[in-house]
Records
---
Amino acid sequence: MEDVVIKGLIADLDKITILEDIGEDNSLEERKTFYTSQVKKMEEQKKKLLKKYLDGVISEAMFDSFMNNIEADLLKHKKEIEDLEKLQLNKTKRENNAEILKEYLSLLKATNDRHELKAILKVLIKEVRMVNNFRPVIITNIF
C-alpha cells in the first residue's frame, strides 16, 4: 500500500513539472514588456497633449476628452501589468511547492522506518480514498 501511495505522489509531481514546462514565462515577460512600453508611450502622450493645450493649439473640451481616453487606457494597461505580475508570482509559488514535494519524496525513498514514513506521509497526504475497494486515490495537502 505504501509503495502505491509513493508512486501516486511521484506521478502527481510529474504532472506538475509537465504543466510548468509549457513555457508561459516567455509570453508573460513579452506581454509585460509590451504593456510597460505602452504605459511609457501614454505618459509621453499626456505630456504632449498638455503642451498643446497650454500653447492653445487644442480647446479645453478636446483636451479633457483626449486626457480621459488616455487615462482609461493607462489604467487598463497598468491593471494588465499587475495581473501578469500575479501570474508570475503564482508560478513561482507552484515551483516552490514542487521543490518542497521533491524534498519530501527523497526523504520517503530514503526512509525505511515505518514511523518516520508515517510522519512524512501525514505532512503530504490529506487522505487516501479507496475507489471500488481496490484502487487508492491520494488527496494531497500541497496542491
---
Amino acid sequence: MKFLVIFFSLALFSFSHGYQIPTDLTLDDAKTIIDRFGSAFVAKTPNYESKEDSLKSFMHGSVSMIETTKISRLGSGSSNSPLQVSQLHFGIQLPYQVDLGLQSSLMAGSNQVQQFGGFMRWKFSKYGPFHISTTVHGSGVNFENQFAANLYGFVVAVEIQLGDLNFYAATGPLRATTSFQGQMFAGASGDLPTINTDRQYSHQVFRLSYNLKDWSLSGQTDWVKDFHSTILIGHSF
C-alpha cells in the first residue's frame, strides 16, 4: 500500500513526453549537453528519520525537473520543454550510522531513458542538532542510445535537525565519463566511432525536508554547472 502511494504520487508529477537530443552537434555542444543532462542523474540521498538503536529501511520516489533552454539552441535544435525524470530509491540503515541505497529511473520523458545508481553514506559526527556525514555515490544513464554517462563522486554534508524539519547542505567533486554516438555530430555520415568526453565538476546540494512520523517530504536543488530541482516523498520502515 505504501509503495502504491509513492508510485501514484510520482505519476501525478510525471506528465512528460519523449525528448529528442539535437543532432549536427559540435564537440562543445556535446560538453554542454553533458553539463546539463548527464549530471542531472547523480544518485540522490533521500532524507529519513534514522534510529541509532535499530535497523531501518526506506523507500522514496522523486521527480526532477531539468530545464532545457540551453540544449534547445544547439545543433539542429529541439524542444525547450523541461525534461521530467522520475526515480525510485530504496535503502537500508546499517549499524554505525551507515546507509546503503539504490535508485532506478521510473519515467524520464521516454521509456528509452535507462538509469541506475547507488550510494553509501556515513554519519560520523553529531553535535546537538548538527550531523556531519560523507557520501560516496555512483550512477549511470543511457539516453535513448544517443549518449551514455557514468557519474561518480563524493560529498561532505552538514545536516541541521530542528524538530520535524531537516536542512541538508553538501559539497564535493563529481566526475562524468561519457560517450556520444558519432552520427549525432555535424557532417557525420556512415558508421562513426563514439566520441568520448571526461568532465569534472564541483557539486553542491541543498535540501529541506519535513518529517511526519515515518513519512518524509523533501525539496532539493543540485548545482553542477547549472541547477535542477527535485521533489522527494518517501517512507521508512
---
Amino acid sequence: MTIAVGSRPLADGRERPLPRFDRAPKSPKMTKPPTTLASEPLPVKVWPAVRKAAAVSTALWLFMLLTGFSAIEGIREQHVAGFPNDGQLRLYVVVPLGGLACSAAILGFTRRLPSWARRLGVGIGLLALLPVFMLFSGGV
C-alpha cells in the first residue's frame, strides 16, 4: 500500500483519493482568477453613484470655500472699518469649511458606512448647498 504525501488512509485501509484538478471545481471558491495578458487593459472599477455624488459635493464645497476666502481677502484689502464682520466670516468661510469637512468625511468613509448613512449624508450635503448658493449670490 503506497500512501501519497499528505493523504491519510481511510478507516478500512483504503487510500483516500487525491483531489483531481482536471475537472471543474465544486464550489466557486476554488476557481482561480482569470489570467490577463500584458496587452489586455486592466478592468476599470466604476465608482458607485453615491461616491460620485459625494465627490461632486466635495468639489462644490471646496469651490465655495476658496471663493469665500477670496471674497474675505477682497474685503480686507479695501480697509473698510467694521468689515469683514463675523457674519461674513461665518457665511463665506466657516459654513463652507464645515460642509467640505462633512462631505470629505463621507467620501473617505464611503465603504465603511451603511448604505442608508451614505445616501442620507450625501443628500443632506447636496441639499445644504442650495441655501448657501442663494446667500452667496445675494438671493438672486
